Amino acid sequence: MKRKMFCLLLCLVMVASLVAGCGTKSTSGDGAASGKSSDKLIGVAMPTKDLQRWNQDGSNMEKQLKDAGYEVDLQYANNDIQTQVSQVENMISNGCKLLVIASIEGDSFGTVLAQAKKKGISVIAYDRLLMNSDAVSYYATFDNYMVGTKQGEYIKEKLGLETAKGPFNLEIFTGDPGDNNARYFYGGAMDVLRPYVDSGVLVVKSGSVDFEKVATANWNTEIAQNRMDAIIASYYADGTKLDAVLCSNDSTALGVTNALSASYKGEWPIVTGQDCDIANVKNMLNGKQSMSIFKDTRTLASQVVKMVDAIMKGGEAPVNDTKSYDNGKGIVPSYLCEPVFADSTNYKELLIDSGYYTEDQLK
Ligand code: BGC
């Protein structure tokens, strides 16, 4: 009898611990792990593990917050909007004192953030702005417009657009329409390139120029690849030269270069990117991608940790921009880090000497 009771108890304990381990929660930190709310618990919501950069952002944030004495509830949402909203709800009910959110879709947090505000929980939008909510305390990112202008300027300079008559053939790939950044990247680049499209020096044979037409859902590599495959088949299969492809980031650039490798026969075009993901740096080194924008995720994380620390100590967070980012409910005070141009000539200094990657990772 005693033995049966013991087995029953053991089973109950096992089932309970299985249930507890089933969620997506990957909480770290003593208070959180024991299920107790802690005065030092910070919720960090990241969009997806699919893209290299968010893994780096998440681990940099976790490490730097822990080094500063905080406990961290770090969650990834597999690019699923509803999952991310639930994760943030859980962070609030689990007693997080501050939320750092890199959203999948900036517009989907209205109700949840209202709950946070009610409870006096500060919210920092990480990299991507949280839209249409008055509960967003701060925004920390890289200068997104500048990312776009740097990509546009690169194409302008390499094609010599100021003096050359062209016409040059250009195709355009930007990011997810639910990510506020995508419009800034596209806007910055097109502010440089559009005059040349209007004057006919740049020709977009596919006819896809407007943001909605060149957006890539979820910044997904395959979606970009499929669109580029179709464009090559329709407009460049007869040997027509493609001169440049404006890609807002590396995951779209990867799709574009995959398609070019598979079926484009002409001289290789200029291809832009952003993030300096390993696969793309390798492509830069073997001539398939011309440049990328380097956004050192360590810098962004350390800026956000400074913000967290200031807020948690009851002060104001450091910002350097109080006019650029209106989320629909007002200007969100922001800290903009500076993006840097990277190509095969300076990657060593930027990426290896700085310890971002090892030489071996790029082989
Ligand atoms: C980020 C980029 C990233 C893209 C796709 C944007 O919001 O700013 O660095 O490449 O999302 O994840």
From TrEMBL:
<dbReference type="GO" id="GO:0030246">
    <property type="term" value="F:carbohydrate binding"/>
</dbReference>
<dbReference type="GO" id="GO:0030288">
    <property type="term" value="C:outer membrane-bounded periplasmic space"/>
</dbReference>
<dbReference type="InterPro" id="IPR049784">
    <property type="entry name" value="ChvE-like"/>
</dbReference>
<keyword id="KW-0732">Signal</keyword>
<dbReference type="InterPro" id="IPR028082">
    <property type="entry name" value="Peripla_BP_I"/>
</dbReference>
<protein>
    <submittedName>
        <fullName>ABC transporter substrate-binding protein</fullName>
    </submittedName>
</protein>
<dbReference type="Pfam" id="PF13407">
    <property type="entry name" value="Peripla_BP_4"/>
</dbReference>
<dbReference type="InterPro" id="IPR025997">
    <property type="entry name" value="SBP_2_dom"/>
</dbReference>
<feature type="domain" description="Periplasmic binding protein">
    <location>
        <begin position="42"/>
        <end position="315"/>
    </location>
</feature>
<feature type="signal peptide">
    <location>
        <begin position="1"/>
        <end position="22"/>
    </location>
</feature>
<dbReference type="InterPro" id="IPR050555">
    <property type="entry name" value="Bact_Solute-Bind_Prot2"/>
</dbReference>
